[in-house]
Amino acid sequence: MRILGLQCCLGWFFVSSIVSQSLPKQLAFQETPVSYQPMEIDSGSTVYDTLKKESRFSEVSILIEADKLLLSRLQDPGRQTTFFAPTNEAISRFLNRRETGPTEEESLRKLQQIIRYHAVPGSLLAQKLLVTPVAKTFHKEDYLEGKSQRIKISQVDDGLRLNEEVLVKEVDLVASNGVIHVVQELLAEPSIVTKTLVEHPNKFSALNLALQITGLDRFLSEVRGVTLLAPSNLAFRNLGCKSINRLFSPQGRKDLEKILRHHMSLEVAYSSSFKHLSPADSSTSEEVTSSSKHKRKHKHSRKNKRKHKRKDKCKHKHKYKCDHPFRKSKDLSMLFGDEARFVVRESPNQAGLWVDYDSRVLHTDLINKNGVVHVIDRVLVPHGVNITTEKWWDDDQYCMGAMAEAHFLE
Fold first, then answer.
1. Which residue in 256, 316, 320, 267 sits closest to 292, CA to CA?
2. Higher-confidence residue: 395 or 192?
3. Please, what are the domains in the chain?
């Protein structure tokens, strides 16, 4: 058996989890705040014709012309398309930073795939983008079994960002068959899940180590279509050092693998899968309390509401589910254990998306080549795995020596 050089890793990811819990932005240029101004409407030209008219889009126009399918779509007056248009400078910067292919033909094919990743079915004006967290694109991804790859759309500061990296410079250049938004950089194709995790060590070093120990990193590299609920470093730390030391030891490896599999689903579920849970859209959701049916029965009578107010008590075995209203979501089948249930908590201090009622979703929709990652703040422990969680500020006695002496055998 070979000794892995991981003695210091366990302590390091605990330190790093406290130092930083944010996802770094990977940008290759200096940004300035963006203030969107209305653009000229060219309702008589198609999306392609509009791009062709402007010299700053000459490079992307050539790439579109080489892709007959995309060209046909952007010229079709009967089908609406949203196109995130990179300027010539954006394409030039991309080519200078990345290797596209060993031959000119392969490079062109690679760029065509990337350009398809900039096209979205339908006409999405800026106001619509603000309420569209994830959008399908024309890029069909082999690692998603030929399904459409997604773009994440986020509102940041004074503008919009795609996949948390590419800033939208200008919006709403309206054409006869869609709309164009100008982007500051070319969108790169997403990475495999494991590569995304490795690129954010301050967030996922504990998870990366756990995946390596159990061999599940290979599974996540090869699987075609996966949702990963990724516990942050601090989520692991909250288990307590005593439990961590056992799980990361040879004796606890089977339980660690069960826990990790309980965070993986072969159903790709983006945050748009849960949009019907918005508190504003109560007509399509159902409160998860034992009294919800009773409330609906008397909703048309104020008198009955007053009459039954004191009797309408929640009797759920977990009282926190009564104290904080939830809205029901679809459940995800995980690779091990029970299904994971996504709910929306409505209390002012804890509003947002949660998993299994007590694990908050900190960050949604890290788009990957073969799936999607949602970051959570607690490790989900499935039935069949027994661990004792210590208060992390009281378990230093287990952290001090155990971390320095931890050996992981392969």
1. 316
2. 192
3. 47-96+104-183 (2.30.180.10), 193-276+327-406 (2.30.180.10)
